[in-house]
Write a structure and sequence with these properties.
The protein has 608 residues and is α+β, with helices and mostly antiparallel strands. It is 25% helix and 38% strand. β29 and β30 form a beta hairpin. α2 packs antiparallel against α5 and α9 packs parallel to α11. The chain starts with a strand and ends with a strand. It is a single-pass membrane protein. It is found in: Cell membrane.
């Protein structure tokens, strides 16, 4: 085999130790002795099995190493990450995503990540799967990075989350608070917490104090660059609450909370109370002390820091009570105008009776009379208002009276037509008598558009106008004497007995003896007897209506004394209802200073 000198490149022989051209020393070549190969003995079955197993192990080791390196490769990690997002698999994400320190994320963090929108999750997948340009939102949140060695041999890749931190501000209220982030407890004492994987977390809060417990939830989005601190205030439906009425009040009114009464001031506003839950989870009561009753409304849900409340002025029972008075007044109003006699009112105050008397006289002075009937009464209780003046409590209620009536000359036939008039009726309440009376019904307007909430049918009983009756004692001089042969004497006695029974009924209905006292002989047996009778009927709540009185006989005792035999009919109202009764009565009457007066009730028997 030809060799060459490394110094000058000249060919040299194998036997030369130096180059014949330049004298450079040549390396020595060892001579190999050729020997005859010895034949190998044949392998045993055991040796063959060992060789086969070794070859198989080598193949498995090579294949397993290849498979393992693929499983933890960046490409496969990116693929599994995308599949976990597509399948909304939070468990799978916990094995693929790590914090910046290499620790795996918790399941609640994975769930928070999956709360991103579809568009945002798609951007995250693209940012992890590519090294090219990605959306700014996703590029700052997740990336694919080497995360140590697997089995100490193969590079392992994970998805690294940009660590996020939370700062919670908790309202400084007296009470206990519990916080959870996606169901995982969070210490309420810690100012900063984290790290967290980027995502949308649900913060659950539960706050409790002496007034109640309120729970709330709010979404917190953690999506910033690495180390971002997200500041949020814990939202609690707790606040200091002030209650106010929708009207001013002159009466003792309170909010009742946990058996404690908090009063409203004269403007209808309470002091601040709380802090209270304002999510409707607790309720309060409102109570007012009105002259006629205590009104209370329960279970008012607290839903605002400035809570408006509406308190009725009366219960349904009281509404029915004054509705009955107003309906009775309507009947008396028609009858009094037809009879020309304001004293027929039993439902009005003396002041209003006197004013009505002047109104009736004004009409009669024009030689005009009134005929009519009450068809219907309507009320609007929801529009009622309460005021206090002149040491009296007044309730104002819009009222409509529908009548069929007419004003006409007494000598003419009435042309009746239906009409409706409206007034703001003022009722005065007497705590002593526990009853309402009409104190005013001014500003009457004709209207057909009144929308009543309560309707009462009228009696539709027609009262014909009779003009002004002459008093039996008018123009009577001191020489007047009873005479059985004098028809005028009988007429005057009958007129007097009618007037006396009208006055007696007014005294009974008003529980006021003065209505009739002037028609009795001073010191006579009838004075004390009638006074006691009026007080008794008033104590048991009986009222009456005078229907008619007819003089059947005048029995003359002397020129100044007589017995009046009368048939009298009354309507009596008591707890058992309405009753019409007639009586046969004998009354002793005297002439005193030229006027007829009652001396004694001789007898009275009910007529079957």
């Amino acid at each position: 085999m030809t060799r060459f000198c490394k110094e000058c490149g000249a060919p040299v022989s194998e036997n030369h130790s130096v180059c014949t051209e330049c004298g450079h020393r040549l390396p020595q070549v060892e001579k190999m002795e050729m020997t005859e190969p010895k034949p190998k003995p044949p392998k045993t079955k055991k040796q063959k099995a060992i060789v086969a197993a070794g070859m198989t192990a080598a193949i498995v080791l090579i294949g397993g190493s290849f498979f393992a390196s693929k499983q933890v490769s960046a490409e496969n990690t990116m693929k599994k990450f995308a599949e976990a997002i597509n399948q909304q698999n939070a468990d799978a994400l916990t094995s693929l995503v790590v914090h910046e320190d290499g620790s795996t994320i918790k399941k609640f963090e994975a769930e928070a990540m999956l709360n991103f929108s579809e568009e945002e999750l798609q951007a995250i997948k693209e940012s992890v799967a590519t090294t090219g340009e990605t959306p700014y939102f996703a590029d700052t949140l997740y990336s694919i990075e080497q995360n140590g060695k697997w089995l100490g041999l193969f590079n392992r890749y994970s998805v690294k989350a940009a660590d996020q931190y939370s700062e919670l501000f908790i309202p400084e209220e007296e009470g206990e608070i519990e916080l959870q982030l996606n169901g995982t407890p969070v210490s309420s004492d810690a100012v900063d917490t984290g790290p967290y994987a980027p995502g949308i977390y649900t913060l659950s809060s539960a706050f409790e104090n002496e007034y109640g417990t309120v729970t709330s939830q709010q979404d917190l989005t953690f999506a910033g660059t690495s180390g971002s601190l997200h500041s949020n205030t814990v939202e609690l439906d707790f606040d200091y609450v002030s209650f106010y009425l929708d009207q001013n009040t002159d009466y003792e009114t309170s909010v009742i909370l946990n058996d404690t009464k908090i009063p409203f001031d004269s403007w209808g506003v309470t002091e601040n109370i709380g802090p209270l839950p304002t999510d409707g989870s607790i309720t309060v009561s409102i109570e007012a002390e009105y002259p006629w009753e205590t009104v209370k409304v329960d279970k008012i849900a607290v839903e605002s820091s400035n809570q408006e409340v509406t308190l009725p002025l009366f219960t349904k029972e009281t509404e029915e009570k004054f509705t009955k008075v107003i309906a009775a007044y309507g009947e008396e109003w028609v009858k009094a105008r037809a009879k020309g006699d304001a004293s027929l009112f039993t439902t009005a105050t003396e002041e209003w009776m006197e004013e009505t008397h002047y109104m009736i006289d004004d009409v009669l002075s024009m030689e005009i009379v009134y005929s009519g009937q009450l068809d219907e009464v309507q009320l609007q209780p929801s529009q009622a208002a309460i005021t206090r003046w002149e040491n009296a409590d007044h309730l104002t209620v819009p009222v409509s009276f529908t009548t069929t009536d007419s004003y006409h000359l007494e000598s003419e036939k009435a042309t009746l037509a239906q009409q409706s008039v409206v007034c703001n009726m003022v009722l005065v309440y007497s705590e002593k008598e526990d009853q309402f009376k009409v104190d005013e019904c001014h500003t009457m307007n004709h209207t057909d558009s009144f929308s009543g909430e309560v309707t009462k049918e009228g009696s539709a009983e027609l009262h014909k106008g009779t003009g002004v009756k002459q008093n039996a004692n008018d123009n009577m001089d001191g020489e007047y004497e009873f005479s059985e042969d004098d028809s005028e004497s009988k007429e005057r006695l009958e007129t007097f007995m009618i007037e006396y029974n009208d006055a007696s009924i007014s005294a009974i209905n008003n529980v006021d003896f003065s209505y009739v006292s002037s028609m009795l002989v001073d010191g006579s047996p009838r004075v004390q007897e009638q006074s006691d009778f009026i007080d008794h009927l008033g104590s048991i709540g009986v009222t009456e209506e005078h229907v008619s009185t007819t003089l059947d006989k005048m029995e003359v005792i002397s020129s100044t004394e007589a017995l009046a035999h009368t048939t009298e009919t009354f309507v009596i109202y008591n707890d058992l209802g309405k009753h019409t009764k007639s009586y046969s009565t004998i009354t002793e009457v005297h002439v005193v200073d030229g006027e007829i007066k009652i001396y004694e009730l001789i007898s009275t028997d009910e007529i079957d």
